[in-house]
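@channel anyone free to eyeball this complex?
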Amino acid sequence: MRFSILTYLFLTVVFSSNAQNDWTNVKVLGNSVGFEKVNKADLKKIFLGNVSNWSNNVSAIIVLPSTRYSRADELTKTVMEKSHNLTRRFWLGLVFQGRANPPIYLDNNQKIIDYINANEGAIAVIIDNEQKQLKNELIIE
Amino acid sequence: MNLKKIYTVLILLISVVSFSQQNIQVYGFGHMEFETNVDSLNTNGFFSLGEHDLFVSGNIINKVSFLGEFVIKGGGASGFKPSIERARIRYNYHKNHFLLVGKMHTAINYWNDVYHHGRLFFPTIDRPLNFSYFVPIHSLGIRLQGQNLGKLNFGYDFQIANGMESTDISGSGFNFSNNISFHVKPKEGMRIMIGYNNDYLPTNSMGSHAHGMQNHNHHYNEGITVDQIHFSFAQFESKFEVLNEFATVISQTDSLGRAVNFTNYFYGGYRINEKYVPFFLFDFLVASENELHIKKINALKYGLGFKWDFNPMINLKFQVERYGALNGMEYLPKQASKHEFKLQLSYAI
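replying in thread with the prediction:
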């Protein structure tokens, strides 16, 4: 009995910490990245630096929210399942290793949208409450 | 070359790279320490200014990137000396496959590949003991690299470079250091790696690609072949952090034949939250009776510590540790016994 209760409590803690994040207003923008749909698992891998080149042979440019981006922590927790601080540390380490090119940090949605539209191979996630479709917006599966 | 010339070159380099390409990042890394050590005779305490490192990374053209690391560190007549720690070009020739040319950190084990001298990323204050003995820290040469391949995120590094006897501008004979390593990352934060390095040192001298000068056996000046096999297991990005670095190093000489040496470093930490990580470490190195490349030694180090990550760019580590020797190997010289207390502040800007 005691073992069952402990098991239940353990599982509750484990699964509650992995609760689903809110993707409602998350949008993915990608310019010439070679696909139009992307699933959440692949998106996480992309933003953790696992892709250097897209399938169309264009170099990947990762765009991340800077510390001035108003909902940076919420965004990185949703997409990368890490706080914004841990995401920055992770990327700093990856760049220091020499295994990835530095990501581009931008302050707000407008700057991110402009950057994506101007740079082939660039990919970003944003939180956007407006319902209208953006240029270069990808579908999250 | 004096410091003024080095600074001028660095400023010019950064200016050229900055103007030629927007996707360029420049960081500074540094650290400061306070250390107290107590042995049977003395107690010493001092502050020290650690390495300060200018790091430049970015694209030169599409698929070709540059990474440079220029360090000012303790040593030399003025107390500090400049050093080019890394300068390499990387060409992304196909998907996640790369060709690298230049001076790099040898991908022989996890620590050297991932942290090298980036104190901000170190889990403990000091490197494993083996870094002061056998590890071929830098390589100047050519390398094929692959990463994040397949479901297990397989990676490889094949490298031919100047050997440990060479410097960054010259070498002796036609001897190269050959390095092969493979790794997998079966889940986020985990990396399992095996590395092999072979090097022939015609006169058993130390060039600029190893840090074992103080433990080097200067009395032996004949040829020596050094083969090293490293096995690393790392798990970070989770509550329990683990890093184990095992290596066996086999040196071969005409004088005493084969010498088989062992070393293992273990770090275990528990991440309480984003900021706090208490940890312990256990590290030993046993150099064989027949060893001639380095001085024979039986070295042990263990300790407890605490890491405080203020934010991604700065952290503070405390460490209490004891140096000594493993029991039961009376035929080997023992590392001097002492206790140390250390504080290290590491940062990036």
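from a first look: The first strand of chain B starts at residue 24 and ends at 38.
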